Amino acid sequence: MARLIRENGLKAQQKRGYKKTTDSSHGCPVVANLLDQDFGCDGPDQKWGADISYIWTAKGWLYLAIVLDLYSCRIFD
User: Fold this and answer.
1) Residue 66 belongs to a domain
2) Mean of the per-residue pLDDT values of the chain
3) φ, ψ for residue 18, nearest 5 deg
4) Number of domains in the chain
5) Cross-strand bridge partners of residue 59
6) CA–CA separation, 45 vs 39, rounded Å?
7) What are residue 7's phi and psi, to 5 degrees?
């Protein structure tokens, strides 16, 4: 098999390696989980969620941040 691959000029396509983007084993203080997976609420402005992500575009990295009111599921900009 190796000889046939070599004779035909074929090469294996390498899979991209895994890139770790978060270091969870650090010595910095960790904020308490106040919601503890309880996302229900009785009215607006009681519980909020947020997330930050990044997206590769033709012009480079763009960062996306959202804040979500868990009562109305409205995303604020």
Assistant:
1) yes
2) 87
3) -75, 135
4) 1
5) none
6) 13
7) -65, -30
Separation CA 66–CA 4 (nearest Å): 53
Q: Which residues contact 77 (CB under 8 A, 6 or more apart)?
A: none
pLDDT of residue 14: 79
Residue 15 lies in a domain: no
Could you tell me if residue 68 is inside a domain? yes
Q: What is the pTM of this model?
A: 0.52
Range of the domain at 60: 45-77
pLDDT band at 28 (very low <50, low <70, confident <90, very high): confident
Tokens at residue 2, please? Answer: 């190796």
Secondary structure in 3-state letters for the chain:
CHHHHHHCCCCCCCCCCCCCCCCCCCCCCCCCCCCCCCCCCCCCCCCEEEEEEEEEECCEEEEEEEEEECCCCEEEC
The whole-number pLDDT of residue 12 equals: 79
